Amino acid sequence: MHLFDRKMELVSYLEGERKKNRTIGLVPTMGALHTGHLSLVKKALLENDLVVVSIFVNPTQFDKKDDLEKYPRSLERDIDLLKTVSKKIVVFAPTVDEIYGNHVKSESYEFDGLDKVMEGEFRTGHFDGVGTIVELLLRTVAPNKAYFGEKDFQQLQIIKKMAEIKKLPYTIIGCPIEREPHGLAMSSRNERLSKTTREQAGFIHVTLQAAKSKFGTENATTIADWVKSEFDKNPVFSLEYFEITDEATLTPMLKKQDNQKYRAFIAVYADGVRLIDNLRLN
Which residues of 182-194 are buried (b: 16+ CB within 10 A; e: fewer)? Predict the structure, then answer.
């Protein structure tokens, strides 16, 4: 395993690998790795000769300083975990100065409205920060394929749109959500939950599954009202939003169309921690 914290050193190493006709996969992460991350790495290893895992807590995608400061960081543990998966992994763990220098600021993007709903509505500037770091990583690593989890499905769609707009010649791969035994979507933020709350957090996924069962017979407004009522009755979890949208455009569903794919999205607070999840409905 190789570890780099400088962009140019990584670029030089990868150029040598390309001369050997080796394909390269990229798995961008913010560290605090878990089974969900490892599933992305394993898929990337199956489809490429070499995999770059970036570990970088990107400050420009946090809209709250407190959230950035509390985000879990465990680089040594992350590296040890990756060593158990494969020796064909390159870790890129830059500092904030290496990425941004003295100018910690995001670029501005036009995402054709994909960034105006849900996460974009509640997290000002978040997706500009995501676009900034992902574009930089893609241009630095120049992978054959890059892998992202569907837990952040809106982010996945936005990254695909950014790659399209910027004409970046890299294939963006979405990978299924990995869940804890009780159904909670795996996330580094789960580490900040109390043991009791974490054990109860399957409630989020159970509610999404129930919403899916109602999708065939009830309209979006009725389902959303039902979801809100379920959270109103639960003292542990506070609902920020629930939306049913078109999967491709992320626009809220007004009237179900037979040829469209729909997905339910949810954001919830528990123990002061913000949790998101989603589920395909049809």
Answer: ebbbbbbbbebbe
pTM comes to 0.94
CA proximity to 141, closest of 101, 105, 169, 122: 169
- Tokens read off for 276: 């998101």
- For helices 202-214 and 220-232, give the axis angle rounded to 10 degrees: 150
Q: Which of 37, 103, 182, 205 is catalytic?
A: 37
Spell out the per-residue pLDDT of the chain, length 282, in tens.
999 999 999 999 999 999 999 999 999 999 999 999 999 999 999 999 999 999 999 999 998 899 999 999 999 999 999 999 999 999 999 999 999 999 999 999 999 999 999 999 999 899 999 999 999 999 999 999 999 999 999 999 999 999 999 999 999 999 999 999 999 999 999 999 999 999 999 999 999 999 999 998 999 999 999 999 999 999 999 999 999 999 999 999 988 888 999 999 999 999 999 999 999 999
Q: What CA–CA distance (Å, rounded) separates 126 from 121? A: 10
Strands (E), 7-129: 24-29, 50-55, 89-92
The candidate with the shortest Cα–Cα distance to 161, out of 122, 198, 135, 143, is 135
Residue 16: helix, strand or coil by DSSP?
Answer: helix
Q: Which residues is 245 bridged to in the sheet?
A: 252, 263
Rg (CA), the chain: 19
Contact 44, 88 (CB under 8 A): no
37 catalytic, yes or no?
Answer: yes
Please give the single-letter amino acid code of residue 3: L
Closest of 197, 179, 202 to residue 270, by C-alpha: 197
CB atoms within 10 A of CB 266: 24
Residue 129, Cα to own-chain centre: how many angstroms? 13
